[in-house]
Protein: Aspartyl/glutamyl-tRNA(Asn/Gln) amidotransferase subunit B
Amino acid sequence: MTDLMDFDEVLTKYDPVMGMEVHVELATETKMFSASSAHFGADPNTNVDPVSLGLPGALPVVNEKGVEWAIKIGLALNCSIAESSRFARKNYFYPDQPKNYQISQYDEPIAYDGYLDVVLDDGETWRIEIERAHMEEDTAKLTHLGGADGRISGATSSLVDANRAGVPLIEIVTKPIEGAGERAPEVARAYVSALRDLVKALGVSDARMDQGSMRVDSNLSLRPVGTVEFGTRTETKNINSIKSVEQAVRYEMMRQAAVLEAGGTIDQETRHYQETDGSTSKGRPKETAEDYRYFNDPDLPPVIAPREWVEEIRATLPELPWVRKARIQEEWQLSDAEMRDLVNAGALDLIIQTVEEGTTPDEARSWWVSYLSQKAKEADTELDALAVTPAHVARVVALIKEGKLTNKLGRQAIDGVLAGEGDVDEVVAKRGLEVMQDDGAIEKAVDEALAANPDVVEKIKAGNAKAGGAIVGAVMKATRGKADPATVNKLIAQKCK
Structure:
């Protein structure tokens, strides 16, 4: 079992220094250097071609849309955009790299020297300095067999799927994040969350961490309190949820502190995050830039980004998430605490989209923050990863307003959508959920409930209106929740005068 130092004790002795590397897959139609489809979810090794398979003689051609979107991300991150940048070959030998090198950018990235301001849980703003945002191609996907959750730890063999090889990728690298102290895990989480919101708002990626279209590598080192020299860092690879980013940083702080306190040394290495318990495990020794033997790719010319083109792209930037959040908070008259709750729940964008589909903010909030958040928790997934859309929620709200569904039936309709039974109207039809329109059938159910509960009837007649709830419950049970509650209450009142 790995020794860990108590988190509070870590802070009395060591100062954490972080660096975040976030890989964002671009949602282009085709790959970065070839015409193969870049779409997610195809059968293994079907979205491939000579370029992405690294076959001899195959030559890459740059995807212009990928360059445009890289510039868009750089501008949104307040970066300088290079008028001329170059692609390089990053050489390493690993099963996920068919060519045994990756086309990336090294000393001439397309975007550099930016920043992103993120808001912490208490409202404090923390500026994250961005060193670079560069273009590259993604690697193939490895599926490890025999380990837990498809991860390499404990695996006995691995399968390679080259569909992802060559998909356009932007790697966003921060400068060292110093001085966060006890808030380092929170700062890491807030940064990745803000970055995910940003790229989604730009429309350049779906940023689905559960599908690998946004992945985080978290670098962490410790130095004794009061010193300035950085310690040896570890890099926890391919973290795929916002919560896991925070947990990985916290765990590495406690693990490294325990090693140092025992007189050991920290190995410069990659580590694998374990979703099961929030721990990290040893990977491989971490290379330096020299080990990759970067050199300019002779098959690709420099990427030229004229100022006029950059300014045209700048003009297409949408309302950025933090600007929209401030506007929405004012328009909806939300307190800072209410807004933070929506953001932390990952619900804000979903609520906004649901309002755009025709609901009120309160109606949208009531569904996403209560019922659907509970469903996401039960499924152990992010709220936006649920198989239900703002349009689905808006349709349920509309049917409730029309009197065709009750709230209870609406939840059943959403359950059907989540179960893959179709859209809302299809689920309502298949499950027979629509509110009963037959007043005679409802009246019959009310009469039977009253006859079966004479003591409750006497209480109602004596002026105890709350006692009617038992009759309403009996009627709803008899009609499988499809009786209109207003009609039921009206009939009870008439019959118990």
Observations:
- Residues 242-261 form the longest helix (20 residues).
- The chain is about 40% helix and 20% strand.
- The first strand starts at residue 14 and ends at 25.
- The chain has three domains: 7-313, 321-431, 439-495.
